């Protein structure tokens, strides 16, 4: 059995040393911090099994730090507050926020060991942390998305989330889902056509999530229509998601009547490439999540260059691809620090797996081999070449959709056809 790790956070040297010595004698591995800043770093790097947190610290009080960890939904270990006589009420309030218990100073040996052992037992029952809306980013894009979702939380009407494949659709659906109520992410669409009434009955008061509804057959669409029409009788919210156009994609034949039911509650979701400033923090959170789930005791962390390189990359598979990428780095990096060279190595592996017709490989080749040639041309020729690359990139991404290309580029379709013809780009 691995040695349990405990983080002691207190600005008083004497208390830190006393608790450290006692707990080391009991067979625990101890880390100490005298400030919130140090505590944040040690929590992230050492992933302790338990945190003993003092209320008063010079740079940030313990209650604020506890709220920060709880609000991020990334608290991976129980927290026991430590308080003097004058802060007992505050410590009690901390247990309502999320602390496991509190210890009153001066702390007796018997009380310390009893509380520590109980907290560690409790830690075994903590739910596994997952990526959620509150830890995928703090950018304006994500804050605006959260505000829009907040306006939809109280509604019971069916919803349609429209966003990239591998993106945040399920994360948003779970954010809208009422706590402690039945939830299902429907994987087998046959149940929608064969037993829609049973599905509703089993999830009364909760949510039914159907991802990629563009894949539904005609009979499954009939089942979805029944789910939507009867959901209010069961107090169930139907949340659907798609990464394809339900009206314009050539391989989609979707019932317009169902679409009309879903469109009033539709919401366009951003891709991860629209808020790249969140990627470094998100990648670090994903790494922490996987490390806490694994049985490995070795610690991993990204260096700054590695995070900057991931931020600059184009993530065709969105959040799911980033998560797979980070997991691969965790498994295959040889050193404690994951470097830019590691990122480059895994990026080459992932690029080999992408369809050669997709834009990532084309844009990568163009970037590596074509930019120097463009810079050697006249300004006019270079501009034409860049526009040619730009339009081809988006046409490849959007399956030759001129409507989408017009929206993305800001060029009216009448002018767009003329521009593409001038650049020698053929449109199917």
UniProtKB/TrEMBL annotation:
It comes from the Bacteria. InterPro entries: AAA_lid_NorR, CheY-like_superfamily, Homeodomain-like_sf, P-loop_NTPase, Sig_transdc_resp-reg_receiver, Sigma_54_int. SMART domains: REC. Residues 135-331 form the Sigma-54 factor interaction domain. Residues 5-120 form the Response regulatory domain. GO terms for biological process: phosphorelay signal transduction system; regulation of DNA-templated transcription. Coiled coil: none annotated. Gene3D superfamilies: 1.10.8.60, 3.40.50.2300, Homeodomain-like (1.10.10.60), P-loop containing nucleotide triphosphate hydrolases (3.40.50.300). Transmembrane segments: none annotated. This is Two component, sigma54 specific, transcriptional regulator, Fis family. Keywords: ATP-binding, Nucleotide-binding, Phosphoprotein, Transcription, Transcription regulation, Two-component regulatory system. It comes from Candidatus Methylopumilus planktonicus. One of its GO terms (molecular function) is ATP binding. The modification 4-aspartylphosphate is found at residue 54.
